[in-house]
Structure formats: structure tokens, C-alpha cells
Amino acid sequence: MNSLRSALVILLLAVGTVGVAQAQPATPDAAAPDTAAAPTTATGAPRAANEYPPNPFIFYRGNVVLDNDRILIGDATVSAPRKGYYFSLGKLVPIFAIFFLWCWSTRWADSDSQSLKVRPQFWMTNILLGGLLGFLLVVTMPSFLLGFVLLIAGYGGTIGSYIYERNQKVPDSAKVMTPQHIRNVVIRTLAKYGINIGSGTVKEQAVGPPIIFIGKSKEGGRSKSVESSRGYMSAKELVYDAILRRATDIHLEPKEDEMSVRLRIDGVMYPTEPFDPAVGQNVVNIIKVLSAMDITEKRKPQDGSFRAEMDFREIDFRVATQGTRFGEKMVMRILDQSNSVSSLAQLGMRKQIQDSLKTVISQPHGLFLTCGPTGAGKSTTLYAALAEIDSYQRNIITIEDPIEYKMETVTQIEINNKAGQTFAGSLRSVLRQDPDVVMIGEIRDAETALIACQAANTGHMVFSTVHANETFSALYRMMDLGVEPFMLSSSLSAILGQRLARRLCNDCKVPYKPKPEFLKKANLPANKIENFYKPPTTPEGQCPTCGGLGYKGRIGVYELLELSERMRDMIRDSAAITQIKAEARKNGMLYMREEGLRLVVKGVTSVDEMLRVVK
After folding, report:
1. pLDDT for the residue 43
2. Is the overall model pTM greater than 0.85, yes or no?
3. Measuring CA to CA, how many Å separate 33 from each of 36, 185, 552?
4. Which residue segments constitute the domains of the chain, with CATH numbers given?
């Protein structure tokens, strides 16, 4: 019975299969039920059994670009869209152009505001937030045109406001985005590609390095009488190259058969390409004319100054000449405002010294001295200390010879010995001007030292420098100048000794294992120090960051002697220097050599450099 049922089922299935096959139409025009129609794609082509049916709602991500293909949707035939990009290239191009312009102008505004001290933190915050808000709006708002207008307003409004404020603080020649500035930029840019337009004066300015000398020999502008001389272009190239190489001094030294040139970079002299005697003498004459010196006088020493305009900023030069065996030697000191230090935090001193120094600076009265050899950065430290004081609420007056860096809201007086204006005489006059803080460029004589101590005792805060090797020598140097011990002990607040050591270049410094003998001699734990660093020994393949020097920039090495009541009593009693040193060590004072070793251990400088500057 079961076998009969199985046979019947198989027969029925076979008959059904044949019937279905016979029911298929012979031609495509034959009528057939919709359910039995062959599956097709959107374009009418046969569709495989594992493919999805066409989507009746056409939707593609990105920009839709119509194609020539046609598709069937129900009873209608429409153009087939093609997948596009997620963003519109036509709209991205202006956005990226504004983005790169924003990055460049933000970097320029940062360095420019730091050099001019035009509220750098305030303006950098506004420029960054304004640009970021504009970019956020342009990519999120439904209307691209409205978003782009808001982007221009956010970026252009903040950078334009900064330019307006900084132009109010600089001379006309240093203003930017003025018609004259835009015209000069266009002319100089075209001149690089051999297209010279404009007047003959502008053509001359566009030739050679992009630097313009502003002399003192012509009233209200640059000296025109020397621009056509033989040495003018050589002088421009010399000064421009020195600024690019971060030089602080240019030395022109006459020899028997040439005019040698040396640059002081990071405190060390480096020779550069010399001039032949004729060209070298022309360069000297050019600088003397710019500095309003007498070019006929070659034996007596002379001094002067001039300025130069470069990269939309003004750079001051202090010039001194001296007759020598083979001719006249000239030294130019480069005073670049953009390289000035605007706060104590930028000096690189230890946190404890920085905090102690801020405490001394904030005192209502006292005498704060910095000491060290020439070129140790004493004036820079005093400028940074003055920057920590609110110059709007306190009357700050400086007496300098000469004024190295300009400070806003600070009264700066320049010494003129030829006119009888000395440090002592100016200090007497300044004390009648109701000052809160007085900075004296240098204490050179007994009269200035005595008046400074008297000013500190009568309710004024006095900053000054004195030439001494270290803090304890400076203490007794003041006594040698004739200041009584009792007056010095009551007026002196602190003495800061300092040196400047070169920083190792982070891109090319080489690690090495220090010798155990040196570590033992320096009282350093050998088990905690893995490597010291030094500059590369081979100059091949010069590092582009430092130019193959192995060092870039400098950092201060300090020792701070802060007077306690016990030390004041010892000074009043004329105690020996060893007793004062022992008392300072009890108070936690570290010597300059110990501070230098700390920088060596941190990899900031090398052992050789530390031994060069700290004895």
C-alpha cells in the first residue's frame, strides 16, 4: 500500500511538470501571467535570481549628475542619475583658499603681535576663534552663500581689526594693507619674474634683497644720495644675509688685501665671505652715510645708528667705527624687535628662580641688579622684568645708553654724553617725575650707584645692571664704587647672575654616554643618567634647521642671590664673602655651574658649551 502511494505521488509530480512546460508561450509576444514573467533590471535586462529588484525611489548620496542612460520606473521612462562626489568642488576651492590664507595670516599675526607687543594673546584668540567659527558655519549651514559670507566676516573682521590696531602703533613705512603697501608688494612680486612697473624709485627698491635702508641723513625718510653708489647693493646683501642667519653683530675688519667679514651668531664669531678692499670701503662709507657719520674722519672713533625695513618690520642698527692699522673697522649691532623677549617665562630659567624673581619685582621698593659680562643678556632680563609690571597703573621710566628695544606705555630716556646728559644727572631728574619703577641701563660710577641706592631707600623700585662675573662679586663691586655697607644692605633686594649658552639643535644633536669620571666629579648619579648630547662632529650633510652649526638659539644660565635678614646683617657688618656664600647655600641657592649641569642633563646644551660660558 505504501509503495502504491509513493508511485502515485511521483506520477502526479511528473504530469504537473510537463503541464507547466507546455503552458509557456512560444514567442515573447504571447500573453503570460505577470507572476510568471522573467525578472528584469531597471534597464530591462534579465535579472539573476539572486539580485534585488530595482528601487522605485531613486536616491544617491553625493552630487547627482544626469546621464544619457534611460531607465523604466513603472510606466515612466526617466534619465538615470550617476553617483557624484560628496562635496562640490566648485565650493571647496574658495573654502580651501580662505583656509590656507587664514593659516598664513594667523602665523604672521602671531609673530607680528609678539614683536610689536600689541596684545598678542587677545588677538590670537580672536583670530583663531573667528576663523574656526566661520569654517564651522560654512560647512553646516544650508545656504552656502550665507555661510561663505559669515566665513569672510569671521576671518576678515578679526584680522582686519588687528591690522588696524597694529598700524596705529607703527610708522607709516611699516603699515600693512595700505594702498602704498599693496602697491609695493605687487611691484616686488612682479619684479621677481622680470616684470618691472611703476616709477624708477620703485624699480630700484625692487632690485636686490627685499630690504630697504632708512638713514638719518635725509629728513623724514631713507637716504637717497647713496642708493646709486657702488657699495649700496653689497651693503644690502651683507645686512640681509646677516639677519637671515640670526646674527646679532656684523664685524667689518680691514686687512692688508681684503675687508674680512665676521658675524656673531648665538654669541660665537663665524667668518663669512670677505670683500675686496675697494668694495669693502664703499660698504663702510654707505653705512656711515646712513648713520649720519663723518665719512672723511677715519681715525677717531664714531658711533651712530640707522634703520632698515624688512618683511614689514623695522630693524634698528647701532654702528661704531674705530681706526686700525689697515683702515677703519666697523661693528654693527642688530637690534631686531621681533627677537625680543616679552616675559620672564621666555628666558628659560628654573621655575623656582622665576617665582622668586617675580616676588622681587613686585616689591614696592628696593634695588634689583643683574650681573654678567658683555653680551650675557642683562638688558633682556630687565626688559622682561619690566614687562611683568602693569605699566598702566605704575609709572615706569628707563634711562638707557642707547635705547635697545621700544616699550609701549614706558617712558624711555636715552643718554647723550655730548650734550652733558649722564646717568647720574638723568636719574636725579627722573626722581622728580614721580616714578614707581626706574630702570638704569648700567651702574658705572660711584655717583650713579649712590643715587640708585638712595632711590631704592626712598620708596622706588630700581632695576639696573653691573659688570661682574657672579652675584657675590657684584655685591662687593657696589661697595668698591663707594656705597656704604649699611646703605647697600637696606636697599638691595636681589642680584641675578647670568650667562647665555647655546641651545643644541633638536634635529641633529647626537647622544653619547658620559664618562663615569666626569659624572663623579660633577656629583651626578651615574645610574640615573643615560645620555648626554653634543653637536654632530662632521659638517657633511648640513642640517637645514641650524645651517650645520649644531646649535640654534640660546638659553640663560642663572644664579639668584636673594637677600635674607641674616644676610643683610652680615653685609652691614662687612662679613667675609665665604660667610655670605655659606648663608646663601643654607637658603637653597644653586650656583651657576649647577644650573648649567641641569641644562646638560636635560639635553638642552652640551658639556663643552656649558664649560665655555660658565667657569
Report:
1. 53
2. no
3. 6, 80, 88
4. 37-83 (no CATH), 89-169 (no CATH), 208-339 (3.30.450.90), 344-504+554-601 (3.40.50.300)
The residue among 486, 393, 385, 401 whose CA lies nearest residue 448 is 401
Q: Which three cell numbers stand for residue 228?
A: 646709486
The 10s digit of each residue's pLDDT in 376-412 is 889 889 999 998 898 888 999 999 887 878 888 889 9
Pairing label, strands 492-504, 551-562: antiparallel
- How are beta strands 268-275 and 259-265 bridged, if at all? antiparallel
Cis peptide before 56 (omega within 30 of 0): no
Record the cell numbers describing residue 338, joined without a space.
Answer: 621681533
Considering only residues 2 and 149, tell me which one the structure prediction assigns the higher pLDDT. 149
Buried/exposed 44-75: b ≥16 CB within 10 Å, e otherwise = eeebeeeeeeeeeeeeeeeeeeeeeeebeeee
Q: How far is CA 373 from CA 377, 427, 465, in A?
A: 9, 24, 10
Nearest to 585 by CA among 614, 556, 559, 613: 559
Residue 274 C-alpha cell reads as: 670677505
How would residue 44 be classed by pLDDT, with cut points 50, 70 and 90? low
Q: What are the cell numbers at 86?
A: 560628496
User: To which residue does cell 641701563 refer?
Assistant: 441
How many residues are given for the chain? 615
325-347, pLDDT tens digit by residue? Answer: 989 999 999 988 777 777 888 88
**Strand partners of residue 81:** 66
Distance of alpha carbon 479 from alpha carbon 485, whole angstroms: 7
